[in-house]
Design a protein that fits this description.
The protein is of the alpha+beta class. Helices cover about 40% and strands about 10% of the residues. It has helices at about 5-10, 15-20, 25-35, 95-110, 135-145, 175-190, 200-215, 220-240, 260-270, 275-280, 290-315, 325-335, 345-355, 360-375, 440-450, 460-465; strands at about 40-45, 50-55, 65-70, 75, 160-165, 170-175, 340-345, 385-390, 395-400, 405, 415-420, 430-435. The structure holds zinc ion (ZN) (3 copies). Keywords: Metal-binding, Zinc, Zinc-finger.
Length: about 475
Amino acid sequence: MEASTCPIDAQFSDKISILLSSPPLPQEYFEKLVTERECNGLKVKLDGEHGKGVYSEVDFREDDLILKDRMLVGAQHSSNKVNCMVCSFCFQFIGSIELQIGRKLYLEELGISADGGCDSSGGMECSSSSEKIRLSHDTIQPLMEGRLQLPYSENFPLPPVVSCIGGCKEAYYCSQSCAQADWDSFHSLLCIGAGSSSPNREALLEFVKHADDTNDIFIPAAKVISSTILRYRKLKAARVEQQPGKHVVSDPHNSCIFPLLLEAWKPVSMGFKRRWWDCIALPDDVDSCDEADFRMQIKDLAFESLQLLKQAIYDGECAPLFSLDIYGHIIGMFELNNLDLVVASPVEDYFLYIDDLPSSQKKEAEKTTKSFLDALGEDYSVSCQGTAFFPMQSCMNHSCIPNAKAFKREEDRDGQATILALRPISKDEEITISYIDENLPYEERQLLLADYGFTCKCPRCVEEAP
Ligand SMILES: [Zn+2]
Ligand SMILES: [Zn+2]
Ligand SMILES: [Zn+2]
């Protein structure tokens, strides 16, 4: 098999190498990241050995909140969309308990099951639907349409569903502000509704289908490209406004104002490390002598996806973004991401609440709720799951004896990442998290960390090294 060669890689090689070798970001950039987030007393420092690192500027006690990190880009797993209806921007659950349950049962009735789309590499938990009890359409419909209210569901209010500005039936929101923010930052180019800014909605549909059929990691990657294009256009419009004397010449050659593209690319440039096909872990069922073939197939798959995306949202001024090398680095950024998007389900809370009621009330409530719980089966508790990139958290270095960890508290009900102190951390100490299961033995830890491109030399590894 011939490896894919991307014409854009050759045509824009100079610009691509500048985009991929972005100079270290300035301190102001990280200061802005810190001030925009819920965190007190953190500083990103650049040092020679590990590159970036996050340091405490205050003392933290055990269990203290260190950081709530807002994602730069994220997307719900395609297969998870049947289970959970969440805001496409902030990822909190929307609608109502009734809608969440009714919609899921309705989609399952149509034969759209989350099981079929399970992505083994994405860490999804697949559950069997064989033991579920099917409910009739007439039982599900009133739930979906809000005509049937479940007992005590008023204790679990969710924000009402807001539709996409572009009119697609794919993206829904918790508020107008989330709908607008998503539209401005990502969705206007990727919407398949009538109001989309994509020049080719057919191609967009094909791109999404390809991602759903192969690997949904392409969806957040497309969001990175669309958001960079949208940022570039905004910067360019602002520049035109700042220079009112100059005529806006419509440029027949679509010439790129490269410094603006570099500026638009800046938030991404802190995230990528390695190309997807170079860093993806070899699946267990692939023999190590077939490794080169496997990596080439992955590269070809990325190329296929990129060509579909290019047909859908290509912008000549941002042409270098459609290079396979760039795409590989963007996907690699998500592949090497050590923190998933997870939001706990209010449907789980609801059924646990019913289960905890005093027996007479419970008995009464279960007259209505039991059949739905039976129909949901074990899936009643499925959380919202996806892929995301968290810019501050990604600056935290790994340690096999970390002093902090990602942990969602009861109140953390959206797509933000929460980092808590595992033990007291004193001022000027580096904040570390574990990228892997730190309970594994030395050799296995080092093997997993090799995918991230480094050998761990944390105090524990130094001690345990043979
Ligand atoms: Zn929202
Ligand atoms: Zn839309
Ligand atoms: Zn270590």
